[in-house]
Amino acid sequence: AKSDKKYKRILLKLSGEALMGDAEFGIDPKVLDRMAVEVGQLVGLGVEIGMVIGGGNLFRGSALHAAGMERVTGDHMGMLATVMNALAMRDALERAGISTRVMSAIPMSGVVEHYDRRAAMRHLRNGDVVIFAAGTGNPFFTTDSAACLRGIEIDAQLILKATKVDGVYSADPMRVPDAVKFEYLTYDEVLDKKLGVMDLTAICLVRDHDIPVCVFNMQKPGSLLNNVMGTTDGTLIGV
Ligand code: UDP
Q1: What is its main location (predicted)?
Q2: Predicted model pTM
Q3: Which of 57, 106, 142, 164 to mutate to test the pocket of ligand 1 (most atoms within 8 A of CB)?
């Protein structure tokens, strides 16, 4: 089915919260194992996969700052949290037989590779999953912005943002029962309607570079595969 696939190279963004399952904090290896199965299906189809993982299950700079810590220190801790999540994800992927690299924006010799775009491209062409850790390496950014930045850098054809709901809704579907789901949105609609899909930096980056973003539910089995095969199962944001 190799010729059927719509997207050859993708960037998958997982929030840190997606890794904690039903817990309030931390990492649930069982959740990671389920994700590894879904990612493995794509690898089997020859899709090249870059990943960015958030850190919100461990630390967020803004939350630490609100509790009294200096913001930049908090952001550094948040970025280090994404490295821990990346190590856990690599562990799950490798146990599932999927060759994986972690490249960190903050050098951490002996633990992970330092991000190098050309090396990342080589790994992707070799069929290795590449997890981009430590966000952009800079405070005051988010891992959504890191996902869009790395997605653009590696020439991804699609950025997939995994969330707890199956797309973008007119209001929070957990709270507003008659909230409607959008099948398709332009970048400008996301901005005008203040839908809060991603922060402004991230949306503006993808808009400037015309990369489509798919918002979908990673907990729904097969949804990742469908979206990558070109059948939208979520919300597609594009031009
Ligand atoms: N962070 C940062 N720069 C980046 C990416 C992330 O400073 O380029 C910090 C920031 O403090 C953020 C934390 O890392 O709160 C975790 O990332 P994020 O909140 O995006 O994780 P998610 O919500 O996706 O789990």
Answers
A1: cytoplasm
A2: 0.96
A3: 142
